[in-house]
Every structure is written in C-alpha cells, then in structure tokens.
Specification:
The protein has 417 residues and is of the alpha+beta class. Helices cover 58% and strands 9% of the residues. The protein is built from 9 helices and 5 strands; from the N terminus they run H-H-H-H-H-H-H-H-E-H-E-E-E-E. A 5-stranded mixed beta sheet has the order 1-2-3-5-4, with helices on one face. Helix 3 packs antiparallel against helix 4, helix 4 packs antiparallel against helix 5 and helix 7 (280-298) runs antiparallel to helix 8. The longest helix has 79 residues, at 194-272. The chain is rod-shaped. Mean pLDDT is 77; it is low at 1-46 and 382-394.
Amino acid sequence: MSTDLGTTDLGTTDLGTTDLGTTDLGTTASARVPRPAQKRAADPAAADGPAADVGRASDRGARIAAVVIALVWHLAIGLPAVLGAWSTLAAPTVVAAGWLAACALGGYAAHRLLHGVPPPALPLAAALLTVDAAVFAAAGREQLFAAANWAWTGLAWFFVVVLWGRPIRWMIVLLAGHAAIALAALVGDGATAPADLTRFTMYVYGTSSLPVAVFTGAAVIATLARERADTATATLAVRAERDAAERAWADRRARLALVGGAAEQVLAELADGRADPGDPFVQRRCVLAATRLRRLIAESDDVPDPLLHELRAAADLAERNGLPIELIAIGTPPPLPVEVRRRLADPLAAALADATGWARLTVVAGPDEVAVSLVTPDGQGPGTADPPTTPAGDDQVEHVHERDGEIRWTQTRWRRP
C-alpha cells in the first residue's frame, strides 16, 4: 500500500507517535495539460493537433477553388475558343490534342490533390510545358494572341494545381519557362514588332499575376490559420493549467480541513485531559478518526481503482488494530467522483470502528452500480447505536443499516442516474 500510517495509530491511543505535521496532504494529483509543440512538423499536412486541422481545412478550401478555376476555365473558355477558330488555326488537330492532354493531366493532378495526395510535380510540369510548346507552335501567327491559343490563359491555372504545396520558386520557374516558350513562338512567327512585344509583356503579366496571387495567398492564409490556432491552443492550455492549479489548491485546502476535523477535536481533548484514553467511547473516537484519516490520505494516491484503494486502507488499519477482516471485490468500479467515493466509504469506516471479533467487507461493482457491504458481529459496545439510513431513491448514494442481535449489516450503494 502506497500510504503507510503504521505510526499513526489512534485506535491504540499511542498519541506520542502521531505526527500530523508530516502527513503529506499536498499530493493531490492535478491534471497535466500538454502544451502545444513549439516546433511544427516539417510537413504541415502530416502534423497532428487542432492547429494542423485548422490549417488543413483552410488549405483544402483553397485547393478546391484552384481546381474549380482551372477546370472551368479550360472547359468554358478554352474549348469554345478552339472550336470557334478551328479553320484559322495553323494546326487545329495539334491544338485540340494539346487541349485534351492538358485536360487529362490537370484532371489527374486535381484528383490526387482533392484526395490529399500531392501530385508528382516534376513529371506533370514537364508534360505541361511540352503541351505548351506544341500549342504555341500550332496556333499560328493569326491566332497567336487570340483566345484560341488557350495556352496563354488556361495553362497557368494547371501549373497552380500541379505545384500545389510546393515552394513559390517552382511556380516562378514554370511561368518563366511558359513565357520563354511564348517569346520563342513570337520570334518564330516573325511577330517582333514593338506592338507585338508590348502585347507579349501584357499577356505574360496578365496571365501570371492572378495564378501567382492565388498560389501564394492560399499558402499564406493556411499558415496564418495554423498560427492563430496555435496561439488559441496555447492560450487555452495556459488557462486550463491555471484552472487545474486552482482546483488542486482548493482540493488541498478542503482535504486539510477534513483531516483536521477528523483528528483535531479528539487530540485536543486528550491533550487537555478532558478525555480518558481508557474510556471505550474515547477509544472508538480515536479508531474512527484514524480510519477516516487513513482513507482521506488514500484519496490522493494515483491508483487504477481509487475506491478499492481507500477501502483497503481502512481495512488495513482495522486489521492492524487486531480485527480479522476479509475483503472481497467482485467487478471493477467505474470512475467515481471523490464525493461519491467518500459517501460510499465513510459509513463502512464508521462501522469498522465498532467491529469486534471479525468483519467481512464486500464490494460488488458494475458499469452503472457499486454496492459496498460490511458484515460484523452484533456487539453491545459503545458505538452500537444504529446510524441513520438513506431511503432508496432519495439520492445517488443509498445507506442501509440492519441488525438482528447476531450480526450487523451495513451497505452503501451508488447507482448511475
């Protein structure tokens, strides 16, 4: 047993060895609230915790938006333009094949992205740049800056989907390659006049700025969301630790008051000479105070089954005072509040203080009910007055006491409401 009060035996009135000053009542177990990790995992998507969940939720919304923009743009703007300018394209079959290839590559990347699996960025980026070069070469000079050359406006959104979650420099490199392909097409078609170069610059800026803004903005928003969640988690953890410390402090004060009430009065009377250690009534009060003190101290022990631990503490003290006692436990009690455990154990501890000859303590537990019974011979000692009983149904914890002249039976019962 983790709490040894062998030197605090009030039942034998050995008050010289009773040192309440050394009773460790400040060991009330308080809930430990884990602080949030100071360093986030290298891969935010693989991190755990509320902050990571918030970041993933924000990132998922941005991913859905990017996929919808890319596919809708490709279907609603690129396809009608290609079909409408079919006869004016230099190689319409190549442009259409490139459109289908980009749709397949983008759809594959979108499928993986929406299922939380990053797409293979390098192979898909290389394939998209190949499609880009083929479409620019097949569009011809007449449709070079027209909507039929869908690679100008639509391909950058597929870059966003393919490179999602990668560093921004990857996006910049891919857009630079896209601009180099477009410039090569201008030179190949002889569109090198100042007006053509100006249109080229405007197109590069206009078709790249919005995808880059979405790409970087989504990453920044997800990061800010994680940081705000981290801050909120840290604040709640500090508040929870403060509340736990305040509860532990209040519990220690309450425990000190209970222990003081259990032994202070009888010790004061003995010290003043107002109580006779040989008086059976005084001896019973000492035994009862020692039993309650032992059980109260056992409340602070961190054990898997607190109720049985507290009952064993009371039974152990009775056995040390010379009472043969048998403890039988059937089932495992569910987690019970301290106040419920006290109300289950205190009447049994009081009955043990009166017991002579022998005692049998039985605990029968289930998920929704716990019954604790004590059977002892029915003596005529100083504490044989019947304790008050609690009628069934009036409270969660019922207390019943019966005697028939031969045995005394005391039971407390808790039922889940």
